[in-house]
TrEMBL record:
Pfam families assigned to the protein according to its UniProt record, in alphabetical order: Acetyltransf_2
Family: Belongs to the arylamine N-acetyltransferase family.
Record protein name field: Arylamine N-acetyltransferase
Gene3D superfamilies in alphabetical order: Arylamine N-acetyltransferase (3.30.2140.10), Cysteine proteinases (2.40.128.150)
């Protein structure tokens, strides 16, 4: 596990200092270079919160990852660079469903390269709204810990976080890649940031999101899927072709759920 190899992976050049400018540059560079993705979960390959696992996958094998891996390797790199990092156990529906980071400089900052559609630069850990690339987010102080509110286009509304709990993170990492009802077991999810917004794959839908616009198209076939992984997300995972029948089947299930909800007059279920 070499810091310089990680810096090369994210395309960071220059001196690494323990200051806000460097933290911002590292945070942004990570997200612009490395995609959020759960292909290993879909391929039934075990993933882990272990730092060596995260490093090998993201740096050596030039893959992306989900929150445990993305924030896991980022936390390791920041600590290797001399930053003071706290790993927060994030809570969605259950404790441990998200790993978020706090970095202490002149004051505490929230860092998060693993939430997918969230922030691209660290923000002061204080109450209030803030805007990045035109997307508005908000931090709310709770009786214990904090709540992060996602932007209005986000599929996930946000998460709570309130300090370290490595056991809970490890437990949920296992559960979310194995439980049949897990959204990560049911759906192939990818997301890649750029300066204007982000592009995401949810099942067969390739979506482009900015603060000003949203668009989508259906991925046509397995070849189109692999080509999109390579050209948009920078991922060379030819074995993902095996996922295409399951992706198509899940797409039809979601369409059926939407149609049933519409006929019943209920709000349509969210896309995967």
């Amino acid at each position: 596990m070499q810091l310089q190899a990680y810096l090369d992976r994210i395309g960071f050049e220059g001196e690494v200092r323990q200051d806000l400018a460097t933290l911002r540059a590292l945070h942004r560079a990570h997200l612009m270079a490395i995609p959020y993705e759960n292909l290993d979960v879909q391929l039934r390959r075990p993933v882990s919160t272990d730092a060596a696992h995260c490093y090998d996958k993201v740096v050596n094998r030039r893959r992306g990852g989900w929150c445990y891996e993305m924030n896991g390797v980022f936390a390791w790199a920041l600590e290797a660079a001399g930053f003071d990092v706290i790993r927060h156990c994030g809570n969605g529906a259950e404790t441990g469903t998200h790993l978020a980071l706090e970095v202490r400089l002149d004051r505490p900052y929230l860092c998060d390269v693993g939430f997918g559609e969230g922030i691209v630069e660290p923000v002061p850990l204080e109450e209030g709204s803030f805007v990045q690339r035109g997307f508005e987010f908000r931090l709310e102080k709770l009786e214990r810990g904090w709540r992060f509110h996602n932007h209005r286009f986000g599929l996930v509304p946000g998460f709570d976080f309130a300090g370290p709990d490595e056991a809970a993170l490890a437990d949920r990492c296992v559960a979310l890649q194995s439980e049949p009802g897990s959204v990560f077991v049911q759906n192939a999810i990818l997301l890649k940031h750029d300066d204007e917004g982000y592009t995401t794959i949810l099942g067969r839908e390739l979506r482009r999101i900015t603060a000003e616009s949203r668009s989508k198209r259906l991925i046509e076939d397995a070849d189109d899927y692999l080509q999109t992984l390579r050209t948009v997300f920078g991922l060379d995972v030819p074995e993902a072709v095996r996922l295409w029948p399951t992706i198509c089947r899940r797409h039809e299930e979601v369409l059926a759920q939407r149609a049933a909800a519409k006929s019943a007059g209920d709000p349509a279920p969210a896309s995967p």
